[in-house]
Structure formats: C-alpha cells, structure tokens
Design brief:
With 118 residues, the chain is mainly alpha-helical. It has a domain of 76 residues. The chain is 81% helix and 0% strand. It starts with a helix and ends in a 13-residue tail after the last helix.
C-alpha cells in the first residue's frame, strides 16, 4: 500500500483537487446563474415588454446558452424554467421597491394619456 501511494501520490492529489473543484462548482455556480438570471429577465423585459411570457423565457434561455454553454447541456430545461421563475419573482420584488427601475420597466403614459388608454 505504501508503495502504491509513493508511486501514484501525484495522481491521487490531482484526483482530489479535481473532485474538490467539481464540488465547489456544483455549490457556487447555481447561485451565480440564479443571480445572472435576474439580470437576464430584466433584459428580456426591456426588449420584449410585458405579456410575452413564453417569448421572454425563450429569449432568456437563448442568452443562457450563450453565457453558460456547458451548464446549458447539464441543466434540464425544467430546472432552468424553475430558476427563471424564481429570478422573475426577485426581479418583480426589486421593481416594486425601486421607483427609478419602475420608470425604466413600466411604460409611463404620454402627456394627456391615461394608463387605461394604452
């Protein structure tokens, strides 16, 4: 056994490092992706407006494939959709609490126009 360890210690060390890296990525990357999804939902909202749910989901998924090509192959679409719904809730909460953002994302009526006319 000692002879085996002496002969393959470097390989064992690399294997441990690889496993530790994979564990780190598996823990940290989903949080980064979820944070990125909030931004992506905001971009899709700006580009497509409200009332275009499935179209926005497709837009966000296309951005996701570009931004995270490896994870887009590993994460099932159902999980991506769940994460996007969570990100959208975070975005809407942020939008409700931020007056400046509301001006950016919620169409304001033109002078002499009401919200009902739009």
């Amino acid at each position: 056994m000692v002879e085996f360890l002496q002969q393959y210690w470097l390989l064992i060390l690399f294997a441990i490092a690889a496993v530790a890296t994979l564990i780190y990525i598996a823990i940290k990357e989903p949080q980064r992706i979820k944070q990125w999804l909030v931004w992506a939902c905001a971009q899709a909202e700006l580009a497509l407006g409200s009332g275009t749910g499935m179209l926005k989901l497709r837009e966000v998924y296309d951005m996701f494939i570009t931004q995270y090509p490896v994870f887009s192959k590993l994460i099932p679409f159902s999980l991506f959709q769940k994460w996007t719904e969570e990100a959208l809730l975070v975005f809407k909460e942020w939008l409700e609490s931020n007056a400046t953002a509301q001006k950016m994302f919620i169409p304001q009526p033109q002078q002499g126009e009401t919200n009902e006319e739009k």
